[in-house]
Amino acid sequence: SDEVKLHKFTGDNPQQNCVMIGRGLLMHPGMGRDSAEPLADLWKFHDAVYEGYCDFIQGDKNMLFKMKELWSYMAVNFDENDAYVKKALKQLRKSQSRADYESAVRQLRIHS
Question: If residue 110 lies in a helix (H) or strand (E), which one and from where to where?
Answer without folding.
Answer: helix 98-110
